[in-house]
Amino acid sequence: MKDMKKYLICGATVVNCDSFLKADILVEDGRITAVGGDFETTDAKKIDANGSFIFPGFIDIHIHGAEGVDVNEADAEGFHKIGEFLARNGVTSWLPTLVPDTDESYTRTVAELNRSISLSPKYLSARILGLHYEGVFANEAMCGALRPQYFKKFSSDVLSTLPRLDGALHLTTYAPEISGGLELTKELVKNGWIASIGHTKADVETLEKAFSLGARHLTHFFNAMTGLHHREMGVAGWGLTKSDVTFDIIADGIHVRPEILKFAIDTKGAEKVVLISDSIAPTGLGDGPYSIWGETISVNGLRTKNERGGIAGSVITIADAVRMLHRLGFDLTSIAAMSSANAARLLRLENRLGRIAPGFTADLVIMDQDLNIINVMLRGQLLSDK
Fold it and tell me: How confident is the model at residue 143 (pLDDT cuts 50, 70, 90)?
């Protein structure tokens, strides 16, 4: 990265999860130092953002790859390639998401992730905040596109078989109803993991027990979980009615119909919803067949399909999801919550990410009136100055 510049971004409408105002933003040494107006500064590079919206940098907690790079197969440079693609599309922080695989593959991938993080000052790309293990402890009946031959059984030392990133966050998507699932919940919470329920058909009693043990989030809501029925609540029904549970959701209009997407967010409240991409390696490459996870996955438009005929992740970005929600009528403050602030809170980073305010990291997305990206700032550096 180049030496830090001092920026004064002028005339934009600043969009936070709880405010919407026209203001200037002063950025120094990678942080936001002031939001307001009439700043006395002669040494800052002025950016005219009049007529634009500025959002906090998007945070994607569930992504398997992009531009031909798969997280399970990537080396350090590959992770930066994904990170550069994400940055161009407004994502300033992310959690690489691993699908079930061999222990050897996990060890190699995490070593490359650690190497990637150590090299990150050389790149202007989305920051890796941690690691998401998806479905290592899933219900085989709800495996979706995951490979059940690599699922793990619970044992008292099973978490030690999952390599960890140095000094980073760790999240796992798991099914609490599997054998030992509630004990696993205890272990996850005790060891500081974020326990997210998914790939599951747990009954309400099991879900309530998992909640009491510290599981507070649901992965890709509606997908790979039991749905809502008027006599059988299902995982989705429990998630909608349990006030202290949050969920993430894929807003591509395919994983969840737009009408149901709007219903779920309206019912839950935007402050409890996190947008994810769940994107896979072909994202950004266009239509065609691709070899991923030991099978051929085809992409046609925004739809993915594996050899079994099922959906296998998405090819959208968070920016695509943002525009989808805007078309559905959600206001910009709600969209800022779902694309950034809520993820920061879930990851326990709400004191430095997910908001445009003094002291916060200068991760910003500058968008036009149609919510197309004009420019992105990562840690106080504009992509256009790269």
Answer: confident
